[in-house]
Write a structure and sequence with these properties.
Blueprint lengths: L3 E2 L15 H8 L4 E7 L5 H7 L5 E13 L5 E9 L6 H27 L6 H8 L6 H10 L6 H6 L15 E2 H10 L3 E4 L7 H4 L2 H10 L3 E5 L5 H14 L2 E4 L19 H10 L12
Parallel strand pairs: 1-2, 2-3, 3-5, 6-7, 7-8
Antiparallel strand pairs: 3-4, 4-6
Helix pairs in contact: 4-5
Length: 289
């Protein structure tokens, strides 16, 4: 059976492998199918395509930053994976540009709060670490590691970068219903990422998944390193009840997170449902039609 990992990140967002290194690392991990899904951008697609090893299928995608509204007026962050959408779609281009600016402004604002409080980081250091990638909190985590304030990016997220931290700054993400519609209009397939981890876990009730499915959501990432057995069982049942695609993925970020390529994988039958649904861009490699 093919080994399929549909959620990975490169230095085009907040991973530590370059888009050229990522396919090679996937081949070394005995993956047959790899999806590159950087946050809110498709900047690594062409490089990953050129670096794709013979025999590997490459799925081009992205992880969209979205927000889910709650009845009390609050919102929670939900990440949405989009696969095989047209990157030249005007709505996709405009929204990804806006989100990159949101990330940039939010990242600088967080660092400014830290600097004002005497934390030894700087705007210049953040921008140097991010390079050409959209500024993200993992880059701030790397700056905190370099300053000796934390031992890992994970520790940074649990402390300085947590939602409860005085340094935290919210960014204005895309309403999830709008993102689902945008991905669909661009010929892509939408899958809720790690829906039982972080703040989204309590908000994404069965009723909300039902409502999202009615708006066009295609799938749920069931098998994820953050999901325990109970979460996977619950999400499997939900996906089956709603006839949604079930995926499994590592959410690999290189050395920024303690995750390994292929740690969780997608069944071939479920992957074929993605391929059969998408009309935006084709697969690259042996799995292409």
């Amino acid at each position: 059976m093919p080994r399929i990992d549909l959620h990975t990140h490169s230095t085009s967002s907040d991973g530590t492998d370059t888009p050229a290194q990522l396919p090679a690392a996937a081949a070394a991990a005995d993956l047959d199918v790899l999806a590159i899904t950087d946050h809110d951008n498709t900047g690594g697609w062409a490089i990953a395509e050129a670096a794709r090893p013979v025999g590997m299928t490459l799925v081009r995608g992205a992880e969209f930053s979205t927000r889910l509204g709650l009845p009390d007026g609050r919102t929670v962050s939900v990440h949405l994976l989009g696969y095989l959408f047209d990157p030249e779609d005007s709505a996709v281009i405009a929204e990804q540009d806006r989100l990159r600016q949101e990330r940039y402004g939010r990242g600088l604002a967080i660092v400014d709060r830290m600097v004002a409080d005497g934390v030894p980081v700087s705007r210049e250091q953040l921008l140097a670490i991010a390079g050409e990638a959209p500024v993200g909190r993992p880059h701030i985590g790397q700056a905190l590691m370099a300053a000796g304030m934390v031992a890992s990016v994970t520790e940074a997220f649990d402390s300085y970068l947590a939602h409860t931290s005085p340094y935290y700054v919210r960014k204005l993400d895309t309403p999830i219903e709008s993102a689902i519609a945008m991905i669909k209009a661009a010929g892509g397939v939408s899958v809720v990422a790690h829906g039982r981890s972080r703040g989204a876990a309590r908000a994404l009730t069965a009723e909300r998944f039902t409502a999202l499915a009615a708006t066009g959501l295609n799938g749920i990432e069931v098998d994820h390193p953050d999901h325990d057995a109970a979460a996977r069982s619950e999400l499997t049942a939900l996906a089956d009840d709603l006839d949604l695609i079930k995926t499994g993925s590592s959410d690999y970020h290189g050395t920024n997170k303690i995750l390994t390529l292929g740690q969780c994988t997608t069944d071939a039958e479920q992957f074929e449902r993605i391929v059969a649904t998408a009309t935006g861009v084709p697969l690259l490699g042996p799995g292409a039609a």
